[in-house]
Design brief:
66% of the residues lie in helices and 1% in strands. A hairpin with a 6-residue loop joins strand 1 and strand 2. It is mainly α. The chain is globular and about 65 Å long.
């Protein structure tokens, strides 16, 4: 462990971290129901969060270390490509508004806790529900891993940059604390802490976008410096690192990445958990209308990647790997340009901004395991109390899966951890999102399409190298069309354009699902029993047919 500790920042960070830890434990009594020994209470906060709580929970849930660390790091390293997050965030909320309302209603009527619960009821297929649950579990792990990476970048910037196990000890302590208050308080813990997290983030970002440009000569000077630095050859590739304007080979990648990410956002278990915890449809409507305000903050945060270039920021070398850690560029920028006391507040904002979504993600993954694996296949007669206890344990275990992603997948940019998960979660779109409007797809077709999308998506990800480390596999989320293979046939041989593999896999998924559906319907294969009715998709708060919260 290095002795070059930034004591002022570390003390302020620790005090704020301890404060939210206390909040996390106290949250068990906040808006408490009859008992926490039920997934409605532990995993969904009693299904009674109003507009303001849902606003902060969704904001804390969706605007994560991805926003505060990974996007600026991508812009620092590649330039304009990092701005794909802006159109993605802008179009996501209109796309998801109506499906989210329908999913909330049908889930509230039937007591569904997860998207796989809904799929099980819609198609009468435990196999399809299991596929959706496993996909959600696996896709969530790299997203949690991204939060770990963001928190570790802050700790490293404060001087906690050791080698071996000691290098990860502060992170381990932070996540043990996170695990404990998540175990005790469930979804109420991140919901309450999100108020503190968002307040800190707002303060830090608005100070940063006014103070830093003034200190560095204004935005014109920042853009000029960034353009000059990005145009210099990357020693690993021999090509320019990036540019302020997208090069032609990257334009299709940018578009498919933005659209694919927007379609994937609310398929993630943690996003759906926040939706299902809302009190009623009006709460969701208000939030879908207001949440784009966070996209403005996202744009301001993204610009910090250019500010870091202009400020001459040098990423800290990871003592464990010996390579520069690009995730440290924003923390280093804050430590370099802000007074120590304010840098400490900024570090705490980023750290807490990683812990809040990590908590929700682990809860959402635990709900999937409990409802759609444990109860469906291991203990069908599980009581609500046994389900809640199983979920608490699973919320601890899933974090180890996130660590495995850090150890075995080493992409060029940390943002690719989330984008790799996006390739997987996109394959649940036909079964989860499209089925809210039509049951035309046969359950066998959906399973076949899911399998093709998942397997081909993983194969494409496996074929992507990391030029920064020399590793040949799982190096990112930008597929060169020249490398696209269909059973050994390369339809785009010689084409230098790049594309998001998740989008390609989704198109194959839909095509296979449609073809298999036509075939099995022709063969007369039963389509399964639909437990839902048309009116279920329009139920609202106060309706008589809603299932009681906490009912067995």
């Amino acid at each position: 462990m290095t002795s070059d500790l930034r004591w002022v920042e570390l003390v302020i960070f620790t005090v704020l971290f301890l404060f939210v830890t206390v909040l996390g434990f106290l949250a068990a009594r906040w808006k408490a129901g009859r008992t926490l020994e039920h997934l409605d209470e532990w995993g969904l906060g009693g299904r009674k969060f109003g507009a303001w709580i849902t606003w902060f929970l969704l904001g804390g849930d969706l605007y994560t270390a991805y926003t505060f660390v990974a996007v600026p790091a991508l812009i620092f390293g590649a330039g304009a490509m990092g701005f794909f997050a802006m159109p993605y965030a802008v179009i996501a909320y209109p796309i998801v508004l109506l499906p989210a309302l329908r999913l909330w209603s049908v889930s509230r009527v039937h007591g569904y806790v997860t998207s796989a619960d809904y799929v099980r009821g819609r198609f009468g297929s435990p196999t399809l529900a299991l596929a959706i649950a496993i996909t959600g579990l696996v896709a969530t792990m790299p997203y949690i891993a991204l939060q770990l990476v963001g928190l570790e970048a802050v700790l490293r910037t404060m001087g906690l940059n050791g080698t071996g196990i000691l290098g990860h000890l502060p992170l381990l302590i932070a996540f043990i604390v996170l695990a404990l208050y998540t175990y005790q308080s469930g979804l109420r813990a991140p919901a309450l802490i999100a108020f503190v997290k968002d307040l800190l983030i707002y303060i830090v970002i608005f100070v940063a976008v006014f103070y830093l440009p003034a200190k560095l000569g204004g935005w014109a000077s920042i853009f000029d410096s960034a353009e000059q630095i990005l145009s210099q050859p990357n020693p690993d590739t021999g090509k320019p690192s990036g540019s302020l304007v997208l090069a032609e080979p990257s334009q299709l990648q940018y578009a498919t990445l933005a659209l694919g990410s927007a379609l994937a956002l609310f398929l993630y278990p943690h996003a759906l958990t926040a939706i299902l915890a809302a009190r009623g449809r009006n709460v969701i409507k208000r939030n879908m209308a207001a949440l784009p305000a966070y996209s403005f903050l996202l744009g301001l945060l993204a610009l910090l990647g250019f500010v870091a270039l202009a400020g001459g920021v040098e990423p800290i070398t990871n003592a464990a790997t010996g390579r520069p850690d690009s995730n440290t560029v924003v923390p280093v920028l804050f430590g370099q340009e802000f007074p120590s006391w304010f840098a400490g507040i900024a570090f705490a904002a980023i750290g807490i901004g990683a812990l809040v979504p990590a908590a929700v993600m682990s809860i959402a993954a635990a709900n999937l395991w409990t409802r759609n694996v444990y109860k469906e296949y291991l203990k069908r007669d599980a009581t609500p109390g046994q389900e809640a206890r199983q979920a608490k344990i699973a919320s601890l275990v899933v974090k180890f899966g996130a660590v495995a992603f850090i150890l075995f997948i080493d992409p060029q940019f940390s943002i690719d951890l989330q984008l790799i998960g996006g390739v997987l979660i996109l394959q649940t779109l036909p079964a989860v999102a499209l089925s809210l409007y039509t049951r035309w797809f046969h359950r066998v077709g959906l399973i076949a399409g899911w399998a093709v999308g998942i397997l081909w998506g993983i194969q494409m990800l496996y074929s992507i190298p990391n030029p920064a480390t020399g590793k040949e596999h799982f190096g990112g989320s930008a597929l060169l069309l020249d490398q696209l293979s269909l059973f050994g046939w390369h339809p785009f041989a010689g084409v230098e354009t790049m594309m998001y593999p998740g989008f390609i896999a989704l198109l194959a998924n839909l095509l296979v699902a449609a073809v298999v559906t036509l075939v099995v319907r022709r063969l007369g294969v039963p389509s399964g029993t639909d437990a839902t009715t048309g009116s279920d998709y329009h139920a609202d708060e106060g309706d008589k047919n809603l299932r009681a919260v906490g009912a067995s």
